[in-house]
């Protein structure tokens, strides 16, 4: 029997830029932004609602976005990524699968990722709350950037057990944990997060990412250093990294 075609997908953006967050900050990636999210964090700065169109960069690095009608055919996306990778050989570290929450699209990703991974490694940005979906895709993922969603910042209850389950799976890849923090983030939350990560592995990096509002970091350097010191008592592999792309004005 002939192989069925790979299904189309609604996407929000496709562009080439530097990674502005986490341990791969400064690395060039091709970003595929998916719509929808299972959370509604109050600090979220991303419009993840579904759209009739996807914005695609005209050429990698230009910042000029053109609108294309959704859903997008997989072959079109695959050829675009391959062309960008050929145009800038060696420049792109990986493909960033981001959102919203991309794991909502687990069934589609199970067909897309094995093929895209033939071009570049796969880097998954996720809120760390869908362990079953991650488990089904883990063989096609090289890097996981996982949030632990702190109540003090999201306004939502932190599901510590769900995050632990997720991290145990993500640890099969090169992964790190990101904590978005602000002045009001209590020491207790940081301690719980550090204990959770260290219980899985003390080798997993923890990134403290200060909340950025309108290009301004909303937490003092003094408090950030206090937080880093607190986490370091449990896991010495802790770093303070803001959203660098916000300061640079890039996609």
**How do the strands of the widest beta sheet line up side by side?**
4-3-1-2-5-6-7-8-9-12
Strand percentage: 15-25%
Shape: globular
Q: For the record, what is the CATH homologous superfamily label? A: Aldolase class I
CATH architecture: Alpha-Beta Barrel
The chain-level structural class is: alpha/beta
What is the C-level CATH assignment?
Alpha Beta
Largest sheet: 10 strands, mixed
Q: Which blocks of ≥5 consecutive residues have pLDDT under 50? A: none
Tell me how many strands there are.
12
Concise synopsis of the structure shown:
A 10-stranded mixed β-sheet has the order 4-3-1-2-5-6-7-8-9-12, with helices on one face. Helices cover 31% and strands 24% of the residues.
Search tags:
single chain; alpha/beta; TIM Barrel; 10-stranded mixed sheet; two-stranded antiparallel ribbon; 24% strand
